[in-house]
Amino acid sequence: MARYIAKRLLVSVGILLIVIFVxxxxxxxxxxxxxxxxxxxxxxxxxxxxxxxxxxxxxxxYGLDKGxxxxxxxxxxxxxxxxxxxxxxxxxxxxxxxxxxxxxxxVMGAVSLVLxxxxxxxxxxxxxxxxxxxxxxxxxxxxxxxxxxxxxxFATLLKLVFSVKLGWFDLFGLVGRDHAQLSAWGKFWxxxxxxxxxxxxxxxxxxxxxMRYTRTNMLEVLNADYIRxxxxxxxxxxxxxxxxxxxxxxxxxxTVVGGSLPGLFAGALITETLFGIPxxxxxxxxAMVAGDIPFSMFYLTFLAxxxxxxxxxxxxxxxxxxxxxxxx
Length: 328
Prior knowledge:
By secondary structure, the chain is mainly alpha-helical. The chain is built from 14 helices and no strands. It has a domain at 103-289: MetI-like fold.
């Protein structure tokens, strides 16, 4: 196992270097006016250097005054040494802005993932054990709705019902108007209430595909030879489903859990925008639109690292839960 992990890590480092080169090359295609705009803003500060010097300094700092290959190594050195630079749009260090918004997106993603797994697995098992029944048709229809409905439509529907009609939740924002006057627990519950609808949206639009995946795996396991043998031995139905079939159904889902790692930190752009949540998804989108090269470079590289780690985690977990798999 240790040898396999070391080998995969070396391969992942090579892939990461290629991905960083692609990201840097794409960012080099951004119009030069973004650098000029930033230099113009910096030169207007009291006692600041002239505009021309700022343009030269910014280009040199991010390797934009060199060829793509030379500039790539300049940017790679900055990333390795932790010199992420300052965000051009938010006028603060990239790391400071990132850490200030990643927490809320992580909480939303983590809660949504837990709810998604609990609902998808349980409903998928119920649908499979009641194949072609009214319950199966109802659950399958609900899953297809979750897959088919656009995020913005379902989010707008929730806001119409629970915010406009019933008045249970606020339409936008992370905190209420009287948030500053609340106690510590009051502030916590205020923020939690504002996250109910966004998390419900993220869960509903993603639970359908996983439920269908669970149902398909469960049906495949229920038709396996060892399940027929267990039935022939007269084992109770609850033990066959809960002890034999269910455990083997979870094995393929491990890869899904491992692949969900990037999603915990990527943020939900559409959901965060619709509900006015200042998470990493909305923040990174605004940075890219504004041509914020330092923030965009860091965020895209961060997602690439998480994707590679997620793939490695999926392989390792799959080998741990399934003794038949051997890693070399």
